[in-house]
Amino acid sequence: MGAITWNLTDYEMVGSEWKVLGDCLKTVHLYGTFAGGTVVLQGSNEDTPTNWVTLKNYNETGISFNTAALETIAENPKYIRPALSGGAPTTDVTVVISFRHDYK
Fold it and tell me: Any idea of the CA torsion for 51, 76, 82, 29, to the nearest 10 degrees?
């Protein structure tokens, strides 16, 4: 089991891309001060990601949060990143994805 963590603020609104190594079970946990901001989890299958799309959970709903939450990620793109929109100077959100390759 492993984890990757990003810290999103009003000054750093997009997390660096994470290259997902193979098919794995992924759960995202978001917490902190949203201050009116919304965080979406995005994915891309491009070798050099430029066209990001919002990832979905197992209910086929886009993964988008404006409050603390824990959600399983249904899709397995090559790259994942969190992106923040809105918010205020006090916005400070931590995004943690835990992943496991041996879930089958």
Answer: 170
Distance from C-alpha of 46 to C-alpha of 75, rounded to nearest angstrom: 15
Tell me the CATH architecture of domain 2-100.
Sandwich (2.60)
Domain residue ranges in the chain: 2-100
Which neighbouring-strand residues pair with 7?
A: 94
Residue 65's DSSP bridge partners are 39
CA distance linking residue 28 with residue 47, whole number of Å: 23
Average pLDDT along the chain: 93
Beta bridge partners of 53: 43
- Radius of gyration in angstroms for the set of CA atoms belonging to the chain, rounded to a whole number: 13
Half-sphere exposure of residue 60, counting CA atoms within 13 Å on the CB side? 0
pLDDT digits (tens, 9 = 90+) for 70-95: 999 999 999 999 999 999 999 999 99
